[in-house]
Design a protein that fits this description.
The chain is mainly β and about 190 residues long. The longest helix is centred in the first third of the chain and has 13 residues. The radius of gyration is 18 Å and the shape is globular. About 40% of the residues are buried.
Length: about 190
């Protein structure tokens, strides 16, 4: 009987999934200084992001997941466009939106600190079309101004100030080029 229980336990341990369900991302400014972290956790409704940052101007700032896990400063254009596997319009308030990578604005306090809990609804850290770890991964970008929630293609939120690479750790260098954010929209018309 003990042998059967031991074999069953061994079988169950061997069948456990190796999928990533949490990840911590280091966030850097355009000068390459570490300015915070983003703790990502798989949830039933999406990916929870606990964002802790310093060094921002007080006020609201846009936050988006971008399509390429590359954060080359100072402008972080290497991160590509917003993560949008379904070809939707930009903006949490847009009637034809939102990009999967669109997140609510965060507010930096008087000292330039951000401590925010966000939900990237519909996304996952597991395998699939909506995985922010698929292919080589994605990146998390914070902008200088707030996202207006409707302007195309990126919310009119200003320059990219902070970036963190979201990857499974299996790939070091992305070979992707940014997509044309209007391409999928034109194909749907």
């Amino acid at each position: 009987m003990r042998y059967v229980l031991f074999c069953l336990l061994l079988f169950l341990v061997a069948c456990q999934s190796s999928e990533i369900t949490s990840k911590t991302v280091d966030m850097y400014n355009g000068d390459g200084d570490l300015v915070g972290t983003a703790a990502l956790n798989e949830q039933p409704d999406g990916v929870q992001i606990k964002l802790k940052l310093e060094g921002l101007e007080p006020g609201f700032h846009g936050v988006h997941v971008h399509e390429i896990p590359k954060c080359e400063g100072p402008d972080f254009k290497s991160a590509g466009n917003h993560f949008d596997p379904e070809g939707k319009e930009h903006g949490l308030m847009h009637p034809d939106g939102a990009h999967l990578g669109d997140l609510p604005n965060v507010e930096a306090d008087g000292g330039g600190l951000v401590d925010a809990d966000l939900m990237l609804a519909g996304a996952t850290l597991k395998d699939g079309k909506k995985s922010i770890l698929s292919k080589d991964g994605t990146s998390l970008v914070v902008t200088e101004g707030q996202d207006d929630g409707v302007s195309q293609p990126g919310g009119d939120s200003g320059a990219r100030l902070i970036c963190g690479e979201i990857s499974s750790g299996e790939q070091n260098e992305s070979k992707e080029t940014p997509t044309d954010p209007t391409q999928l929209n034109e194909e749907q018309e």
